Each structure stands twice: as structure tokens, then as C-alpha cells.
Input
Amino acid sequence: MSNKINWGKVEFCSSYGMFSQIPEHTRTEVAFSGRSNVGKSSLINKMLNRKSLARVSSKPGKTITVNFFAVGWSKKDSTPSARGIYAVDLPGYGYAKTPKSEKERFGELTEMYLKSGRVGLVVQLIDFRHPPTVDDITMLGFLKASGIPFVVALTKADKLRKKQRDERRALLVNEIEYDDITIIEFSSETGEGVLELRKAIEKAVLPNTELNLEEPV
Ligand code: GDP
Output
């Protein structure tokens, strides 16, 4: 059996507005986190090869829910051996116009979810063009302190020229202060980084498979 996830097999499962509503799951959950407008919906759609599974928002920050997608398996036909994950779209943070009450609900929902110990990997999105925001840094610190495995995806890579990329890359080392992080440069316009992202997820959630044993380290 292959250890690869069937990325073509995807379906929307549910949205939840409160942590207490989220049922127990037996499959690994991979969560996608980032500020509003960072390109999270676009990244999820591109990774799953879908046009509009995750909604690319015209109004940033409007939906504050956690959205679950079945990837690599189907709720209707869930053979235990089918490799697969839940892709979990977390609400985008940092949108100034979000009402205070919604921000509080967002904070509670996200924090409780991430602290629950059920997340196998977080893909933390940061806009490649700009320094990480204060909220981005807070989120990275939180992930590190909580011991939650994570990778960083730098979004909108197509918007930078090579020289600008080199500059941002060099600055980022100091801005995020961690040197042992997997960083994936990503563009939902060109598809750059899709395979690398899928591989990082497969590696993180399916660590003990036959294929890994066969592959030279
Ligand atoms: P979200 O709020 O984080 O889900 O961000 P969206 O996916 O809705 O994207 C916000 C805006 O950035 C939209 O106008 C997208 O078309 C645009 N965008 C997202 N990813 C990319 C990318 O990789 N390249 C370019 N050029 N634009 C992008």
C-alpha cells in the first residue's frame, strides 16, 4: 500500500462556530492558520486542486468558523485502510473591522482547538511580501510553546521578483527567530510549492509507512 494521500479525493464535512461542537475524530487533523487575506482559502483550494472548495473571500474576516474537509477518503466509503486526513480551515485573524465580540470568540475557538491535542500539524501561512505581523509572531510562539508540529507557508510568492525574494528570505531568519522550521514558498497562482506542501503533510501525518522505510534517509 502506498503512503501517499489521494489528494484528488476531497469533500467538505462541516463547519463549527464553537469548540464544544467539534466531534471526536479518528483521523489526523491538519490545520491551516493565518491572518485574513493571507491567501489561506486560495492555498487550500490549490493544494486540493479545487476551484472553490474553501471560499476565497471578498470580505476578509467575515466567517468565524472552523471548517473541516475530508482529504484522501470519503465519509460515505471510509475503509479504515484508506489514507487520509481532515484538512481544517481555521478562521483568519487580524482583520481590524471584526467586532470585538467576534474576535473574542475567534480567539477562544482557535486556542481551545489548537490546545486540544488533536492537531497533527499546523500549516502557518505568512505573506511572503511582508514581515510577519505581530499576530503571526504570537501564533508562531504559541505553536512552539505548545509543542504543536508546524510548517510555515510563505504565500503569494508569484508577486515577488527573485531579488525581492532573496531579501525577504534573509530578513525572515531574524524576524521569526527560529532556525529549525520547514518553510515552503507557495503561490496559488503558479502552483509553486503545492507538491512540497503535500509532501510535508504526508511526512508529518504518516510517519511509519512502508514507503518511508524503503526510501533511503
Ligand atoms: P484568505 O482570506 O486568507 O482566505 O485569502 P484568500 O485566499 O481569500 O486570498 C486573498 C486575496 O489574495 C484574493 O484576492 C486572492 O486572489 C489573492 N491571492 C491569494 N493567494 C495568491 C497568490 O498566491 N498569488 C496572488 N497573486 N494572489 C493571491
Remarks:
- The pocket of guanosine-5'-diphosphate is lined by residues 34, 36-42, 56-57, 60, 92, 155-156, 158-159, 187-189 (CB under 6 Å).
